[in-house]
């Protein structure tokens, strides 16, 4: 039976930041489960950079079904966690069940991959203090307020935590995460 990886997300998650790790980890032989606020079709977005804009733009992206609702997740059944970005982390971070799940992975020193705005979730769970993490540059103040050091890097490894700034960092981010995952919980 394949080892399981949990991916926590919701509406307005960045399409690439959900689907790339989902497919890459399945390619490695892991069974990846998507958990959302409820069992429903999640609506993702595409963030892009357009000349003349001071920040990224947002367009409708892919849809994807959540395998489980957060309340159904038993984190002890998973070997790793993925926290994609987009706008979903802005509201998911306030969910006490999500915070409990995230704390489980950090306390058990299981591999965690977070990207873009994903660190907002781990910050709200209170697990970033004293750590180093990449994140989308606009949330560097949030990372620092959580007691972490923000690093402007494409693949920042801090123990079992692997982080990146955004979807342009995917190759380096997943390369490092897969190495950590293989060492801690080979497929």
Q: Care to give the gist of this entry?
A:
The chain has helices at about 15-25, 90, 95-105, 120-125, 140-145, 170-185; strands spanning about 5-10, 30-35, 40-50, 55-65, 70, 80-85, 110-115, 130-135, 150, 155-160, 160-165. It is an alpha/beta fold and about 190 residues long.
What does this structure look like?
Belongs to the peptidase C56 family. By secondary structure, the protein is α/β, with parallel strands linked by helices. The protein has one domain: 3-Layer(aba) Sandwich (Rossmann fold), CATH 3.40.50. Helix content is 30%, strand content 26%. It contains six helices and eleven strands. The chain has helices at residues 15-27, 88-92, 96-107, 119-124, 140-145, 170-184; strands spanning 4-8, 31-36, 41-48, 57-65, 68-69, 80-83, 112-115, 132-133, 149-150, 156-158, 161-164. A seven-stranded mixed beta sheet has the order 5-2-1-6-7-11-10, with helices on both faces. A two-stranded antiparallel ribbon has the order 3-4. A hairpin with a 2-residue loop joins strand 10 and strand 11. The longest helix is centred in the C-terminal third of the chain and has 15 residues, at 170-184. The chain is globular. The termini are close together.
């Amino acid at each position: 039976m394949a080892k399981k990886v949990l991916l926590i997300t919701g509406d307005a998650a960045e399409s690439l930041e959900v689907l790339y790790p989902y497919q890459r980890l399945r390619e490695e032989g892991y069974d990846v489960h998507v958990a959302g606020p409820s069992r429903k079709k999640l609506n993702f977005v595409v963030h892009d950079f357009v000349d003349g804009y001071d920040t990224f733009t947002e367009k409708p992206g892919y849809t994807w079904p959540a395998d489980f609702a957060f309340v159904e997740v038993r984190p002890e059944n998973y070997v790793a966690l993925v926290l994609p970005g987009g706008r979903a982390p802005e509201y998911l971070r306030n969910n006490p069940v999500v915070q409990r799940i995230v704390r489980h992975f950090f306390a058990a020193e299981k591999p965690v991959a977070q990207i873009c705005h994903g660190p907002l979730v781990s910050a709200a769970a209170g697990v970033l203090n004293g750590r180093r993490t990449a994140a989308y540059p606009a949330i560097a103040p949030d990372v620092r307020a959580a007691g972490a050091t923000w690093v402007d890097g494409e693949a920042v490894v801090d123990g079992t935590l692997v982080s990146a700034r955004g979807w342009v960092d995917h190759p380096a981010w997943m390369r490092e995460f897969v190495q950590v995952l293989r060492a801690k919980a080979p497929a």
